[in-house]
């Protein structure tokens, strides 16, 4: 199948540092190539991909040192080019929210749009009402809730390259791991409280965004001066395998409607169980009592930690391989693409 | 003529506080109504206008307290609605940069797009190359420089309602005025140095944006503890008439490619001369030796201050009325609209 993947231009594909959407597009494009498809990737020129790259900007926007940039103009130019070449592809798969809608109204039935962010923003419902002809994909069922009426073709969970974060049969650490950003909705304070309640050490590998520096300084930093808590800053992919693989569990104490939560499946890839608060996608990602525990509060989390020895790290890894590899994700998308070619997109449009 | 004006949704039309583009759209829409045209304004619902308002959002985005908003989705929804109703209008006049291009490619020859911002951003040239069929209007000739190749139909300078800021024949103040934002490119430090060189008091009426608070604290605040300098913070429209009308001159010591510089004509409306550094639009807005002086450096500014008594405040006001009222601006736009109806847009498209 001839497939175009259209990535955002904010981060490299995959990102040099953080950045979720461009990372998934990178994994998906490579996995589709591995499945034998003819994949063209529209992305910034610093992409590393097995697909055919169409560079839409000399480099990704966020780390581009140019003082004056227009992310909107850059994306509009890319979409202009995608449309010019649209006839070359069987399916066009967009990852740029809804910016492409005005460009592809006539070709909507052979497009797929994966929405990567939270959807409970004030202005979204009106916009998605206006373009019902575009088949949408959610990354969790929970993510759809603010836009139930929209034209959902399916939910496709994220996946990771199978060998990116290797299985660790015997972890060396005996600590709880917190990985991500220090921010109020990620609730590192809950992870710290859990360490105190259980007596287990907590290691925090997290970046502090500029927007969250006051929260870090006022709410979290005072809690770090404690022998149980170790703050190790930001880590890269290599550090991540080590950090997650050696943990007794990943703690994911979020307090916001997480659309997916990539770090949960990163832990599972290492065989590490997840203890996560019931929020957003969490119950869809964790197999309760198999890959971890979904909890409702701190007491629940303490009880879950006590039950960690019941879980099998090998079985966690098996579950990861069955549900969350990039190949699984790519095969699921191929099913949807094939449906579009059979007319599912047109059928959706008529019923929308 | 049936004219649609399409405003940005960031600020109310006109803005409750600062905000240049929405202010000009408000003045233009009302002036076109006064000239007898049938004007429809697409804008946020908190607009105050004599045109027929099509509310595109319940309120302007920036001051909307909703925690999660999408300015992009809001603008796309508005443009979807404008396109749905496009057949009702002779001319569609856009003030939303280039976001409407993918919507109106077929109708481009009866659209007009006024660009309100600086154009020396990295991603703009590629985008404007791709949509040459859209007739553009600049707000100064200088503004065009980074995009000389683009499809320019004309330059229309901004205008103010004639009676908004009344003429003050005899100013009471004897001070230099600085009005705007405290930021490195506005160079309040130059205004302060000029006060020291001339011995004239300087009054600074300016807001400090969050982004500029370090600049204010480190570079400007230490200079304010001086009997010659008075910092009076932000002022509203009523305060502006008083502040500008009683000044000996407005000092406009900018150090960036200003696309227009509304405050210069606000001063002229009061009969107050302008001493401005040669930058961006400045030489196009000031009639040298009539409404003020264009200078190249601090020495030039000192010399200009010495020559202020040569200028006639009445003649400054007359020049304002001849060049910079909203009616003059509206009549200029009507000429361009009429040209579009005669086919100027199509002709441009063929030569583009």
Describe this structure in words.
Two copies of one chain form a homodimer. The first copy, chain A, has 352 residues and is of the alpha/beta class. Chain A has two domains: 184 residues, Rossmann fold (3-Layer(aba) Sandwich), CATH 3.40.50; 149 residues, Rossmann fold. The first copy, chain A, is 34% helix and 17% strand. Chain A has twelve helices and 13 strands. In chain A, the strands form two sheets. Chain A has a seven-stranded parallel beta sheet with strand order 3-2-1-4-5-6-7. In chain A, strand 11, helix 7 and strand 12 form a beta-alpha-beta unit. Chain A is globular, with a radius of gyration of 21 Å. The mean pLDDT of chain A is 95. The interface between A and B is medium-sized, with 30 and 30 residues.
